[in-house]
């Protein structure tokens, strides 16, 4: 597997350099300790994405030279448009992360938007921006498929 792929599959926990959360017996769900855990994860993830966006811009400025050969120029334009699409995706993700950080501050984090039950720490560690519990998410995906099909 190429090195860049390995890096991309790096988990969000690894980016934030945190271990999976260990709950104490009888600990309150989404108490201050748990919220801090997710603040740290979401903050580190957002910073990493911001760096990536910044790197893309720098890279494009460095490389934006005028190739005399039209083939080279076309290849460069294609590369840039791919990078712009990636950057767009990253920007959207950053917005979503910031929205999720706001949910933490509003005491609204960790509960399903649809049915209100606890989304669960393990699911949130895998997908910190999840707004639905696994059941509602599965149902939403089935509905989506039915609409499309
Ligand atoms: Zn639900």
Automatic annotation (TrEMBL):
Q: Which gene encodes it?
A: dksA
One Pfam entry for this protein is: DksA_N
Source organism of the structure: Photobacterium aquae
Q: What does this protein do?
A: Transcription factor that acts by binding directly to the RNA polymerase (RNAP). Required for negative regulation of rRNA expression and positive regulation of several amino acid biosynthesis promoters. Also required for regulation of fis expression.
Location of the protein in the cell: Cytoplasm
Listed name of the protein: RNA polymerase-binding transcription factor DksA
Chain ranges of zinc fingers (dksA C4-type):
112-136
A GO cellular component annotation here is: cytoplasm
User: Which family, according to UniProt?
Assistant: Belongs to the DksA family.
Q: Where is the Zinc finger DksA/TraR C4-type domain?
A: 108-140
Q: For Zn(2+), which residues are the binding ones?
A: 112, 115, 133, 136
